[in-house]
Design brief:
The chain is an alpha/beta fold and 374 residues long. The chain has two domains: 162 residues, DHBP synthase, CATH 3.90.870.10; 203 residues, GTP cyclohydrolase II (Rossmann fold, 3-Layer(aba) Sandwich). Strands 5-4-3-6-2-1-7 form a seven-stranded mixed beta sheet, sandwiched between helices. It is globular, with a radius of gyration of 22 Å.
Length: 374
């Protein structure tokens, strides 16, 4: 049996496998456990709470439960705070939890305390699970945890998970896929990164890997890339990049599974609903508890390295991507802008990216359009 276990754990240690499984549980709407030293806690994402589960958690908690919220959400509740915090839950009151976690005009109704190591791990693991960053935490004894049958992750492994996932990136498939306007194209599929999701490197033409390679890091946008949404310029950027690379000697387009600036598709739709109510793209994310950008690009740099790329000419408007590639050890020989079409629906979004996140977007491109909806 020990030989079998050593084979199963050869590539990813048992602690990292445990985090994988806890992420899956939380995404499925089930509770899991985290622990730090001798401290154990049951964790449950707020978005999956229903009356039945609330009743069960209340019976276990006996007044000791707490709601863990990230700093952006606490600021929306009226606290000038740079760190996450916890609010005591004398009872598992669904209405109160929903009010504190999601209500746009909510205000904090109780003191906010600092996080314990277990609380921090709980908040991080729901972030990895791409669910709403609000979590109910119920302390339990080590014995109760062992007898529960629930999956458990150790806090240190939770915080190491992302870094370890980067080095686990590997190519799992590749094939020629001719594209309109770029018939000489190969798709290279990597598996790894957070949640072992598939990432795509689209090699267009025959780029010379010994020289600076034209590269774009493009985060997946279902609404813009596939359906041509007018709320963003993502689809234009994607197609313009492929055409440019095909006409300019080739390049590598990384299509990254980081929907909604790393918040996930469900949270992106929540943010879109808030935008229709008048919030801009960043304020909408903050209402939900997210910072301006949850994405990491270290695994993208690892993909490029595995393809043999050492120096890049990066196509982006986002200075964070440029800095991330440099920090990962790639030479950035040059950078150039890649712009989509502004319209009455996306001009506020583009202006917000320029003004609030420092994106390098030409002001003149925007001033010719009306204010529109974001």
């Amino acid at each position: 049996m020990s030989d079998i276990k050593s084979i199963l754990d050869a590539d990813r240690g048992p602690s990292q496998i445990a985090v994988d499984r806890v992420i899956s549980e939380l995404r499925s709407g089930r509770p899991a456990l985290v622990h730090s030293g001798r401290s154990y806690a049951l964790v449950m994402g707020v978005e999956a709470l229903d009356p039945r589960m609330a009743g069960k958690l209340g019976a276990i908690a006996r007044g000791r439960a707490r709601l863990v919220l990230p700093a952006p959400r606490l600021r929306r509740l009226g606290l000038d705070r740079a760190e996450p915090g916890v609010i005591a839950l004398p009872s598992i009151d669904l209405a109160r939890i929903g009010y504190l976690s999601l209500e746009t005009n909510a205000r904090f109704d109780a003191p906010v305390a600092a996080l314990s190591p277990v609380d921090r791990a709980a908040l991080e693991v729901v972030r990895l699970a791409l669910i709403l960053p609000a979590v109910v935490v119920v302390p339990v004894t080590a014995r109760a945890a062992a007898e529960s049958g629930l999956l458990v992750a150790e806090s240190a492994a939770v915080f190491e998970y992302r870094g370890r996932s980067v080095v686990d990136m590997q190519i799992v498939g590749r094939a020629p896929v001719p594209l309109e306007g770029a018939p000489d194209t190969e798709f290279v599929i990597f598996r790894g990164g957070e949640g072992l999701r598939d990432q795509v490197a689209i090699v267009i033409g025959k780029p010379d890997m010994s020289k600076p390679v034209t590269v774009r890091l493009h985060s997946a946008c279902l609404t813009g890339d596939l359906f041509g949404s007018l709320k963003c310029d993502c689809g234009d950027q994607l197609r313009h990049t492929a055409q440019h690379m095909a006409q300019a000697g080739g390049g590598v387009l990384l299509y990254l599974d980081q929907e909604g600036r790393g918040n996930g598709l469900s949270n992106k739709m929540r943010a879109y609903r808030l935008q229709w109510q008048g919030f801009d793209t960043y304020d909408a994310d903050e209402v939900l508890g997210f910072g301006h950008d949850q994405r990491g690009f270290d695994f993208a740099a690892e993909m490029l390295k595995q393809l043999g790329v050492a120096s890049v000419r990066v196509m982006t408007n986002n200075p964070v991507k440029i800095a991330a590639l440099r920090a990962a050890g790639l030479e950035v020989a040059s950078d150039q802008r890649i712009l989509g079409r502004a319209n009455d629906h996306n001009v506020r979004y583009l202006a917000s990216k320029r003004d609030r996140a420092g994106h390098l977007i030409d002001v003149d491109q925007l001033t010719q359009y009306g204010s529109g909806k974001d």
